[in-house]
Amino acid sequence: MVKLRYSLISSSMFLHLLFLVLLLVVQIRPLQAAATGSIVEFLPGFEGPLPFHLQTGYVGVGKEEEKQLFYYFIKSESEPEKDPLILWLTGGPGCSSFNGVVYEIGPLYYKQKEYNGSLPTLGLTPNSWTKVANIIFLEQPVNTGFSYATTPEAINVIDVDACKHVYEFLLKWLVDHPEFSSNSFYLGGDSYSGIILPRVVQLISDGIEAGNKPLINLKGYLLGNPLTFPEEKNFVMPFLLGMGIVPNDLYQSLVQNCKGEYREDFAPTNAQCTQDLEIVDELLWYINDQHVLDPLCGSETESPRPFPSAFRGRKRRSLEENSISPNCYGSLVDRHELSNKWANDPRVQKALHVRKGTVDHWARCRQKGIKKTYTFTFMDSISYHVNHSSKGYRSLIYSGDHDMGVPFQSTEAWIKSLNYSIVDNWRQWTVNGQVAGYTRSYSNKMTFATVKGSRTRGS
Questions:
Q1: What are the start-end ranges of the E strands in 120-174?
Q2: Looking at residue 114, what is its pLDDT?
């Protein structure tokens, strides 16, 4: 049994501890250079000066730097000159990396109180990953968060180009921040990042072999509930059975009549399969697919899923119908609304050094906009994991065990397909003597872990 101890029990802390398992102790040669970008010392809604180093800025990518990508950079609160550097890509596509700062792994959170029209207030998260790592939170692709295009055509992007833009951003950012070029480097992300992040790792790896400068000290990557392959939805049914949402008799009928195919693009060959899937749709009508125990509330629809939630293509009930439910007060969706109020305040945008007039309205996730401007050309990243493992890069894949959108069963399945030898078999990992999840380590430096009671993100 892996025994991990910390002072507080929370899902974000669970992920923090998992991340510590991934990191190696490395010797770093510090470099001396002046950092560029704009330093943020005060934030509206936070009392007093920020107790950590926050920098914001833009990096232009594309042939004419027509895509201006916004970022938040937070230095490690321990030893920034020696601690790892992480580039964090929030899922989506089209979801702001500010999610990572306040809802996932960053040092801030919104203080929960009933919204009264005033500016939401911020507090400090005790278990931020920035305690032990330098983290760049990148707003990508273009038209995400405060990132913007300088021409009407530049707003359009293809997924393969979006990966290249992330790599281009990183190279340019390191040119401006040479003091971090020798730090151990990791990529991290969740949800849809499971598709593009492994491809970005491949670009970095290829660049290292080609001798591209600055040389990146790539060590590995980590992914939470990552979308990985198109058959992901076929594993939702066993998840629903285990959660008690689908009864055993219906599950057995589905297995018999649908032959294990439940994806939206699958055309049933018999009427009984169609009927069974329609029953499942009804059962999921009021279920939050990102955490089946969370209430179904307003703006959760702003979180796009490249693989649809409904099995037969019927549009799921609008969450806005339940946005005023008293059960939503204090929920993650309720806190999401606070970020919309906060980030659109002119005082906040001035403090963050956002270029005036570049973004009409900040949105936590731009579902509708991204559907019009983002083109999907690949939806399978398994082969990249094979390549990365063969080159000795470390990887941590973790799953919140209550996420229906990317169930832990599907992640287990694609990892098993890699045929890696098991180094440490399925076992508990604990916090203060309590089981916090389960983990298994493989050869080729891959670790899989579940996080008890958690959802897609570490919030």
A1: 122-124, 134-138, 148-149, 157-158
A2: 64
